[in-house]
TrEMBL record:
Any one cellular-component term (Gene Ontology): membrane
Ranges that cross the membrane: 36-60, 72-94, 121-141, 147-167, 179-197, 203-219, 297-314, 320-340, 370-385
Taxonomic source organism: Macrococcoides goetzii
Superkingdom of origin: Bacteria
Protein name: ABC transporter permease
InterPro entries, sorted: EcsB_ABC
Length: 420
């Protein structure tokens, strides 16, 4: 090989190594951030609760498996759950500044994106295999089970995760909407997994070939296309925001951004009495208004209530439902405390000519109303589902009062430290 060809080859290898090194640096930074917040989330009390809840759910699951209803299509339920898991996002860790500083390096970014896809695929494959293993007792206790069919369904799911990631990346170059990409991957996986579970395992072959062919065609059409930096940056920002919102349900995330939108329907919940418009209640009013117009805090609370209702209905066991409900009451109180941290350190509490102590007083007034309302809703749901054991709902209120007191004490302690 001539020296000039060796030189070009070595230059390309060096650029590829730099791209992989850049991705690894950003991946490690993200992992360190998650590990940092995990120290606050998985404290002793929370780990003990998760252990109890997991054991209770597994006990309930084993009891359900022994008494399966012949009128429910469990194969379809398993297929839908596994097909949803094949929809995999690609964490590229692309930053807004990359569209400027990496523009000249764009032709050598393939190694960067391949590293991102490999990482995303491996993480999702591990989750998929674990969930598939959990479904084994349910599948083989249902009617018309097939060992070969289940193995082929798992194989197809793993293959579809890999193919789906390639399809998503190539379709992003073509500016195709993300929800359409996810729908295509879901339908391809669902059709093959369900037919395999039904005893037709060889149906996965045409689906795999179709997926490979689709990747080939998309690759041919995108060979001359460059990276759509704006779409890639927006996509990564959405994934980062989703990650931060999940973490923010349990602990405060630095730099968490929130958007607001007026919801006129909810304005009826704002204080109307003139006596409320004074120094003693001004921050209570502002906390309530900002909460009702928040794009994250409001919907997180609503989602937690809906999760509580669905899970308590599914488990069909009063003790387990009580534990799940108590945990979600605990999570709601913690989420409310995160809302305080987002709002109290903004500019308006700092500049208004009122005592600083009124900020915390207003938050306590707001917190009591919100937490009592949500706890009552969860307790009512529990009492409707389990009327013979409605007295268990008292646990929700006891835990709510205990958690609310601890949260307010920690906030007061932090405020005093900041003053010093």
């Amino acid at each position: 090989m001539p020296h000039w060809m060796k030189f070009i080859f070595m230059q390309q290898v060096m650029r590829m190594n730099k791209a992989v090194q850049l991705f690894n640096q950003r991946r490690e930074k993200n992992q360190k951030e998650i590990a940092y917040y995990s120290k606050f989330i998985f404290n002793g009390h929370f780990v003990v609760f998760l252990s109890i809840a997991f054991g209770a759910l597994m006990l309930q699951y084993s009891q359900m498996v022994k008494h399966l209803s012949p009128h429910i299509n469990y194969h379809l339920i398993i297929a839908v759950a596994l097909a949803v898991l094949t929809i995999t996002n690609i964490r590229t860790f692309i930053r807004p500044a990359d569209q400027i500083f990496l523009l000249n390096f764009e032709l050598h970014m393939d190694a960067y994106f391949k590293s991102a896809m490999i990482r995303s695929a491996l993480i999702r494959i591990v989750i998929f295999v674990i969930v598939a293993a959990l479904f084994i007792p349910l599948y083989f206790n249902a009617a018309d089970s097939s060992m070969i069919g289940y193995i082929c369904a798992v194989i197809l799911g793993i293959v579809m995760i890999v193919i789906g990631i390639w399809i998503r990346f190539l379709m992003m170059k073509l500016d195709i909407e993300q929800h359409l990409i996810s729908l295509l991957i879901f339908l391809m996986a669902l059709s093959g997994i369900y037919t395999s579970l039904e005893g037709l395992p060889f149906t996965i072959i045409p689906i795999i070939f179709f997926g490979i062919g689709l990747v080939y065609l998309l690759n041919k059409h995108t060979q001359q296309r460059t990276v759509n930096w704006h779409a890639m940056i927006d996509y990564e920002e959405r994934l980062t925001h989703q990650q931060n919102k999940t973490i923010n349900m349990f602990t405060d995330v630095k730099g968490m951004k929130d958007t607001v939108k007026r919801r006129r329907v909810l304005d009826v919940l704002l204080p109307k009495h003139k006596s409320k418009y004074n120094q003693q209640h001004m921050f209570e009013f502002l906390f309530i208004r900002n909460f009702l117009r928040s794009s994250d805090a409001l919907w997180i609370i609503i989602r937690l209530i809906l999760i509580a209702a669905v899970v308590m209905w599914i488990v069909n066991q009063e003790i387990i439902a009580m534990i799940i409900g108590a945990f979600l009451v605990y999570a709601i109180v913690l989420q409310t405390s995160q809302f305080y941290k987002q709002q109290a350190f903004q500019l308006w509490p700092q500049v208004w000519p009122v005592p600083e102590s009124l900020v915390l007083t207003g938050f306590k007034q707001f917190m009591r109303k919100l937490v009592w309302l949500t706890t009552i809703i969860i307790a009512v749901i529990y009492m409707i589902l389990y009327p013979a054991h409605l007295y268990y709902a008292a646990v929700f209120f006891l835990l709510m009062l205990w958690t609310m007191r601890n949260v307010t004490e920690k906030i007061e302690k932090r405020m005093n430290l900041l003053k010093d």
